[in-house]
Design brief:
It is built from 7 helices and no strands. It is mainly α. The protein has one domain. The radius of gyration is 18 Å and the shape is elongated.
Length: about 180
């Protein structure tokens, strides 16, 4: 429990720092394709932090947490490379701002579209591991494992149902606005 409190404090400090950076960035020009929305970065950091903590738990909970951590880190690397950066454009697009400098998001969205089957397989693997983690937590009476597994499964669904389709829509929207002849 003490580790979770320290982890929570560290994440709170990181969140405040990221929010300050996000506020400063919002006043500047649109992202260039390397930025990840602060909320996504915070979610990734939280997931990894919790899985690292759960990896130290004894027995099956720790073993499954370690396997889940490896799968989640690999998936986060893919997301950071080309899935999440276009989401940083949403505030600009919502304000009706479209510039040629945003075209970088189009190939990222196309990359996502081409990899949808692979990404779905990754989500399915992670969700299977989270179900195993939840079940192992129940057997071990490990409330932290149970609660985290359920929470991260919900976030995985958000990726599949909301965020990834939004990236595809961003790419299609930019293509239509920047290259209407195609």
């Amino acid at each position: 429990m003490h580790l979770m409190k320290r982890t929570g404090r560290a994440l709170t400090v990181a969140a405040v720092g990221l929010l300050a950076l996000a506020g400063a960035a919002a006043a500047q020009s649109p992202p260039n394709g390397t930025e990840i929305p602060a909320s996504v970065e915070m979610g990734h950091a939280d997931a990894v932090s919790h899985l690292e903590a759960l990896s130290g738990h004894p027995g099956r909970v720790g073993a499954i947490a370690r396997e889940t951590l490896a799968a989640v880190k690999a998936h986060i690397a893919r997301e950071d490379a080309y899935i999440k950066p276009p989401l940083a454009l949403l505030p600009y697009l919502a304000d009706g701002k479209v510039t040629a400098e945003m075209a970088w998001a189009i190939p990222m969205a196309e990359h996502l579209r081409a990899d949808r089957e692979l990404i779905m397989q990754e989500h399915n693997r992670i969700n299977t591991l989270l179900t195993e983690l939840r079940d192992a937590g129940r057997v071990a009476h490990d409330r932290a494992a149970i609660e985290f597994a359920v929470t991260l499964a919900g976030e995985s669904l958000d990726d599949m149902e909301i965020q990834e389709p939004t990236v595809l829509l961003i790419g299609d929207y930019l293509k239509a606005r920047l290259h209407p002849e195609r």
